[in-house]
Amino acid sequence: MAALVPFSLLRNYSPFMLARPFIVKGCNLNFSKSVLPLPCRRLPFSARATHDEQAAAKAAAATADSGAPTIFDKIINKEIPSSIVYEDEKVLAFRDINPQAPVHVLVIPKVRDGLTELAKAEARHGEILGQLLYAARIVAEKEGILDGFRVVLNSGPSACQSVYHLHLHVLGGRQMNWPPG
Amino acid sequence: MAALVPFSLLRNYSPFMLARPFIVKGCNLNFSKSVLPLPCRRLPFSARATHDEQAAAKAAAATADSGAPTIFDKIINKEIPSSIVYEDEKVLAFRDINPQAPVHVLVIPKVRDGLTELAKAEARHGEILGQLLYAARIVAEKEGILDGFRVVLNSGPSACQSVYHLHLHVLGGRQMNWPPG
Fold first, then answer.
1. Do B8 and B55 reside in the same domain of the chain?
2. Does residue A117 or residue A52 have the better pLDDT?
3. Which of A128, A148, A152 comes nearest B157 by C-beta?
4. Residue in B with minimal Cα distance to A48
5. Confidence band (pLDDT; 50, 70, 90) for A57?
6. Which residues contact A86 (CB under 8 A, 6 or more apart)?
């Protein structure tokens, strides 16, 4: 079963990482010092996040078409705790445990129904796709970011998709940059 | 009417910019030289794009709730030429003239119907929202990037929305980074 759980998610749910969410590998940070050494003050945080996500995405892609359950199934079934922001009959929205903005929520269909990724969508999925996008708007309202938020959907490894259960990212609470990754 | 056309789009559609799509303001580029000076080789292209988009987004937000036509109406009505990738009864998809990836296509509803931005979506918009996301998948297939693509939807100025007619960005053809802007 462990092989089915993407590395990034295992990392995300590690108590070690939860206790030290801002650690940057390869950079000997010591936050008790008042002044960080220059190379650490100019942290390549985005680059590090990018490479972690790219590696996770490549690993996840290897089992993308297996139809195997993902970590989202455990979240839907409440086997793994999550911070739920919104839920209805078809959709679940919960906080990303590795947030890239002050607000970062994932919106997923409760039943995957073949939607491992957007690339696998068929015309019959139109209804749930619309419900997911509308749920993203509900999440933005609940989180108080209706005045500015970005929705991102990654399909495939080159887009950094790391869980093969279609999901939208809802990000806000800061100025988003362009290009979008 | 000019006041209703976002700055970024005017810039995008300027024949001057079309002739020199990769010019970077503030950096005296001369592509006839075989070796660029170091400060220009390390171009702050992303930062420049970000600031342009942020400025354009702020300017566009000023008339967001006016209900006035946008440049997309001119594209839908074929008053402004565009490179159309996909079209059906409800949806139009055309290339972004300021692409942020080898493939960068915008997907819009042909009738705005109050959808200036996702923040304005109501439950009744679910159907068109689903059609737009499914059209993004069709675009990815037509563009040969079904193995990896990112869909981005910006709502509001802090997300860099620069045209107040809801639209999805479909990006691919390169490794996308994380975070997504």
1. no
2. A117
3. A148
4. B178
5. confident
6. A92, A93, A107, A135, A138, A139, A142
